[in-house]
Every structure is written in C-alpha cells, then in structure tokens.
Amino acid sequence: MTRAFRAELIKIARPRMLWVTAVVAVAFAVGSAAAGILSAEPAAVGGPAPEDFARAGGGTLSFTVAASFAGAFLLAVFAGAVGVEFSRGTLRTLLMQQPGRLRLVAGKLAALLLFAAVTVAVTQAVSVVAAVLFAAAKDISTAEWFTAAGWRAMAGDYGSALLAVTGWALLGTALGVLVPSVPVAVGIGVGWAGPVEQVLGEAWGPAAEWFPGLLLESLLDPEPGGPGTARALVTLAGYCLVAACAAGIALTRRDVTS
To answer: Which pTM value belongs to this model?
Structure first.
C-alpha cells in the first residue's frame, strides 16, 4: 500500500497536474464567492440573503453551496483515475511493484484523498479571501467571520466538504473498478449523479433520504425538512460499505492479462 501511495503522489505532483488543479481551484473559489455574494437578495426572494452572509459562517456559505453541485465531477474524476489503469493496461505493471490488488487500490485512493484534502483546504481559503472582497462591494459585514464562532463554522464546513469528497471518492473508485472502461464508467456516474438523481429527486420526495448523490449534497447544503446529518451519514456508510465489498470482490477475481 505504501508503494502505491508514493507512486500515486509522484503522478499527482507533476507540474502540469498541479497547475491545472490550481487554476480550477482558484476559478471555482472566486466564481462561487462572486455568484453567491453578488447575487444575494432579500430573504423573501429566495436563496441566501445578505444577512446570511453577515453571520459567522458567511465566509464559506458560497463555497459550500457551490461544492454541493460538484458531485458528478468528483465521481467522474475518481472513477477515471482508477478505471484508466484497466483501460491502459497498466494495472499488471503496477501489481509487479505492489503485490496485492486491494492494497494497490487502497494506496492509490489514499493518495488521491490526501491531494483532495489539500485542494479543498486551498480552495476554501481562496474562497474566503474572495468573499471578503465581494462582501465589501455589497456592504456586507465580515466581522463575524473571524470570531471564534466564525472559525468553528469554517472548520465545520471544511469537514463537511471533506466528508462529501470522501463519499464521492469511494463511490467513484468502486465504479472505476466495476466498470473498467473509463468512458462507460464516467458516463454512468455523471448520468446518475447528475440528471437522473436530480429529476427523480424533484418528482419523488423520499429520494432525498435514499439517493447517495442527494445525501452527499445534503452534507454541504442541507434542505429544510431533508434528512438529518446523522441519518445521511449512516445511509451513506451503508452505500460505501456495499460499494467497497462489490469492488473488492470484482478486483480480486478479475483476470489481469495486460
């Protein structure tokens, strides 16, 4: 597992990968802050109001709302990162350096999650800086953001984002193992987490309490009357356990010939 972890970190640390990630992270952070704060309207209109941004957790409000819609993208990223080893035929070479298929995938996933944790932290920090600038343009007070309650809110939002990323990572990894064709895996993941869940969620009320994508969204942007955090975490843990078992069985029994 350690070898796979280090090998994946070497791949991630390539300059091109780091630059692309940095550009996407900054664009997402600034864009989410701008979209959230500059479009804030009175509570009667719907959506976050200026007074919501003036509270202790206002600094990361735009970040968490925007991050809740990034699930399909994250699912595709992790599914592709694992599935590409099958489609390119590099899994056999990796197994020669890191015997043990489960340890190989676990090490790869651990490295990707570490990179995701750092990326989320940097994105959130940039989002807060951008939010300060945009809040000044809208005459929104940021005094509560940097109090003890404000720092706790930021830490809590980071933890929620990391939980959501971990959930998408586990589901995406399982999908990448079960469907070794990257285009097919990505198509299934994006199709389900995007339009299918959203459409069914609008048509069928209980969907918010059972569909994994909607549950992961609720960790970041809970809806009134939706599933509580404890209920969502328990249900998601069940999904992740089933996905991990299915992927583990498929991975250990599949022939690796190229």
So the answer is: 0.84
